[in-house]
Write a structure and sequence with these properties.
homotetramer, Glutamine Phosphoribosylpyrophosphate, subunit 1, domain 1, seven-stranded antiparallel beta sheet, 7 helices, glutamine amidotransferase (chains A, B, C, D)
Chain lengths: 269, 269, 269, 269
Amino acid sequence: MCRWAAYLGPELFLEDVIASPCHSLIAQSHDAHEAKTRTNGDGFGVAWYGARDEPGLYRDILPAWSDQNLRSLSRQIKSHLFLAHVRASTGGVTSRMNCHPFVSGKWSFMHNGQIGHFDRLRRGLESRLDDSIYAQKLGSTDSELIFLLMLQHGLDQHPAQSLAATVNTIKAEAERIGVPAFIRLTAAFSDGQHLYAVRYATDRFAPSLYTATLSPNAGLCVVSEPLDGEAGNWMPVPPNSFVTVKDTKRIAIEPFMIADEFTPALESV
Amino acid sequence: MCRWAAYLGPELFLEDVIASPCHSLIAQSHDAHEAKTRTNGDGFGVAWYGARDEPGLYRDILPAWSDQNLRSLSRQIKSHLFLAHVRASTGGVTSRMNCHPFVSGKWSFMHNGQIGHFDRLRRGLESRLDDSIYAQKLGSTDSELIFLLMLQHGLDQHPAQSLAATVNTIKAEAERIGVPAFIRLTAAFSDGQHLYAVRYATDRFAPSLYTATLSPNAGLCVVSEPLDGEAGNWMPVPPNSFVTVKDTKRIAIEPFMIADEFTPALESV
Amino acid sequence: MCRWAAYLGPELFLEDVIASPCHSLIAQSHDAHEAKTRTNGDGFGVAWYGARDEPGLYRDILPAWSDQNLRSLSRQIKSHLFLAHVRASTGGVTSRMNCHPFVSGKWSFMHNGQIGHFDRLRRGLESRLDDSIYAQKLGSTDSELIFLLMLQHGLDQHPAQSLAATVNTIKAEAERIGVPAFIRLTAAFSDGQHLYAVRYATDRFAPSLYTATLSPNAGLCVVSEPLDGEAGNWMPVPPNSFVTVKDTKRIAIEPFMIADEFTPALESV
Amino acid sequence: MCRWAAYLGPELFLEDVIASPCHSLIAQSHDAHEAKTRTNGDGFGVAWYGARDEPGLYRDILPAWSDQNLRSLSRQIKSHLFLAHVRASTGGVTSRMNCHPFVSGKWSFMHNGQIGHFDRLRRGLESRLDDSIYAQKLGSTDSELIFLLMLQHGLDQHPAQSLAATVNTIKAEAERIGVPAFIRLTAAFSDGQHLYAVRYATDRFAPSLYTATLSPNAGLCVVSEPLDGEAGNWMPVPPNSFVTVKDTKRIAIEPFMIADEFTPALESV
C-alpha cells in the first residue's frame, strides 16, 4: 500500500503538496495514518505537466523523506497539474522502474492497491497487450501492468471505460485460471489536461481517497489521505467511484463498476 | 536513533542475526519497538571479521528491508564477530559515508544516540584530532567523530578509557562554548578479538541495550532491542555501563562514567 | 558489450581477479582494451560459491571502479568458483535487476554480447518459457532471457545442449518474424561444480575469450580479456567454442554450433 | 578532471546544452576529448536559476549517460542561467555530497581541476573558515573547499577578488607547510545574475575553457570543451583569465593572478 497526491489548478510549487503541508506526502512517507503500512519508504516519484505535452518524471529508490534532490526540485518546479507518489512495496523489488508514476506519451499514472494472485495472473494479462504497448513495460509491478492494460483498452479515447475494461480483464483472467478475483485500486492518472482518479475494490476495503481545495484560491487536490491530517477539511470519495477533475470548479464523482452499465456524466460542483 | 546488533561466538551466518529472527535487525529497520523513531530506513551497514585483520564492510543508503544484496551477503558470509546497524538519521544526510559501522584499521564502531548541539561543538571537537586521524573523516556525523575521538584518545591501548576520555572531551567542549552537555551513547565496537559496548547518557534516557545468547550453543549478542521481541529472554544492561565480551562465557559489565575513577574488572559470567 | 572474468580452482580472494591484477576487471570497467565500448560503467556484479548450494550475489548500478563495497567484499570473500562482470549497456536501463550475473537456484550466468532485433524477438522468446521460469524474470535484458531459455531447455541436465537449443530457438524466432538472426554470445555459467563458457557469434565477430592459470598454484581463469594486459600469457579460445572446466587440470574446448551435431568430449589439458 | 558547461542568455531547455548537442555534456561524460580522463562517470549535477533566488540543484552518483531522471528533467526545465557538471574523481569518494555544483544561498559553483597535496593542506585551509561557513561543508573534496574559501573571502562583494584571495590562501598554506603550490582551476560560478568563470593554473597546463553563442539568437555558453566538437566555432579563453558574463552581449575576459594587481574592467564584446 502506498500514498499519493495529485493536483490540478493554478500553478503552484510542487513542494506546496509534496513537502510543505503538515501531513505532506513526504511526511506520509515516514508516517502514514490511514495506510496498511505506516512506512512508505520503497521509493517515490513525481510526474508534472509543464512545457511539453509529455510530463516530466523524477523517480528514485530512496525514501522520499531523505532525498535532497526531491526537496530542491519541488521548491523550484511549478505546475498546474501533477501526480506524486510514495511507495510501500507489496512484492516487487525496489527499483526506479517499479516506482510510480508510470508515463507513456502524454499519460501519467499512479496507484495504491494491489491485484491478488498477481504472480499467477501476470502472464495471461501481459498476453493481452499489443507488441507496441508491451514494449513499454520496464518494471515488474501489477501497477505498471494496470496502466498498460488501460492503454490497451483505449485510455486515449475514453479513460473511465478503459479502466473498467481493465478491471473486467483482470476478473476474467482470474476466472480463467480459477482464482478469486481480488483487486484494490485507488489510482490517479492524467493526460495533461484533466485529472482522473478511482477508488475501487472487489471487497469492502477500497483504499481511502479524499479531495479538497488547498486554499480558497488554490486548485484541487485528490489524495490518499488529508495533507493537513484533518479529515474534517476533506471530502471522502465513496468506494467504487470514478473522479473526473476538469478544472477546480468542475469535479464529477460517478459510480464505478457498480452496475453493468457505466454512464459517465460530468457535473458542476 | 538507530538500531544495532553485535555478535561474538562460534561462527554463524550473518543472517542468523540480521534477517532470520522474528524481530531481526531487518525487521527492526521497518518497525522498531523501543526506539524514538520506529522506522530506521536511512541506510544500514555491517562490519564482520574473517580472513583479514581488518573487518569487511558493506554499507548502503537503501533501507535494510529492501536491499537484495544484504539478504544474499548475510546468507553467505559466516563470522565469529560482527556488528550490524540500521540508521535513523538525526540530522546528517543519507550517504554511505554516514552509515555505520565506521572502520579504521582493525577497529569497527557503531552507535545509537546523539551529541546535543553538535553543530556548535563539531569544529572544536575536530580540532582535537591529529592530522592522521582527521584524514580518516569521510562523513559528517557525530557518530563518526566519536569514533575518531576514541582513536585519538588511545582506543588501541585501553578501549574503555578512550571512550571515557571522549565523553569528557565532549563535556569539556560544551562547557567551553557554554552549552549544556547532552550525550546519549549506546555503542558497540571491536578490534576483531573482543566486543565492547556501552550504554550511557548524561540524562536518565540512555538508549536501551540488551544481551543474550542466541541459543545454548551459539555465541553472545549485544543489541539495541531483543531479536525475538521477547524482553524476558534478554538481560537489560543498566544505564552507565561498559560491557566487555571476551568470549561467550566471559562478559563483564562495569560502571561507566559514574564516579571519577574508572576501574575495569573482568569477571566470569 | 561488457567484460567479465570467471575463476575455478583453489580458493582465493575475489580481489585477486576483480581488483589486484594490473588489468583487473575493475581496471577494465574504466578502460577495456578489446571491447566495442571502452567504458563498462553501467553496473557490475559478482556471484560466488561458498557455504551454500546457491551462490552469493552482489550487484549494483555504480561503476565498479567507484564502489567501496565491492573493494571491501572482494578483499574478504574467498571462493573456489566465482563469476564477475562489469556492464556496458546495449540498450536496457541501468538497474540492479539488469546487472549480471543472473542467478537461479544453484546456477549463475553472465554474458557479453547481444541479440539483434531483440525488441522484436522478445515476446516470442518469452512465450517459450514455462510459468515457473518466466516468474523468475526481474529485468528487461536479452542476457537474462538467454539464461531463462537455457533453464527452459534443460540447463540442469545438459548445459551445452541447453545453450545450443537456446541459440536455435532465437534463430527460429528470427526466421518466424522475418528478421536476420544476429547473435553475439560470449558467456560463462556455473552450477557450483563446473564452470562453463561459450564464444559464439552468427557473424565473424564473436566477442573475445581467453583462458589461463593465474599462477602455477592457482586455478583457471576464463576472461573477456587478459587480466595482465599481456595476450601472450593467455590462450585465446577460438570462435564457436564451448568450454568446460571441471577442475584446473581438466578443461575441454569443443566446437559449438558449427555442424548439426554437437558432441561434447571432455579432455585432459 | 571533470567536464562542465554553463549558460547565460534567453531561457532554453537544459537539454539544449546537457543532452542535445552532438558533443553534449552527457556525450562528454562518456567520451571527453580534451580531458585528462576520457570518462567522467563519477556523478553529475546541474544547478539552475528560475523561480527562486537560490538555484535548483539536482545531483546524483550515476554516470550522467545512464540517468533517466536527468534526461527527463533537462527536457522539462527551462532556465536563463545554469551550470552543469560531469565528474571524474581525482580522489574523493563518489557521493552526492561530492558532486558539483555546490550551492550556498544564491551562489552556485563548479570546478574542473585540483589542488596538489590536498590531503596535507586540507585542515589548514578549513581552519580559515568561519563557523557559519564551515557548517556548510557536507563533502570531502578540494572543489567544495575552494567554494567555501571564496565565500569566506567575500564572494558576495567582489567575486574575482574572492577567487584571487582563495588562490593566494592556498599558496600561503602550501608555503607554510613546505610543499610546492600546485593548483589547476577552471571553474564557473554564479549568483543568479551574472556568470563568472576562471581558467588558471600554477603551471602551464590550465584546463581548457571555451566560449561561444549556441546560435544567433541563443545565449552564451562557457564550457570545458566545445559542445559540437568543432573547436573552430568556439573561442578559447587564454590561461590565467577571469571571465565575466553580464549578458549575451557583454562578456569581459581579464587577466587573473598574472601581476600583483587585479583590475577588473568590463568590456563590450
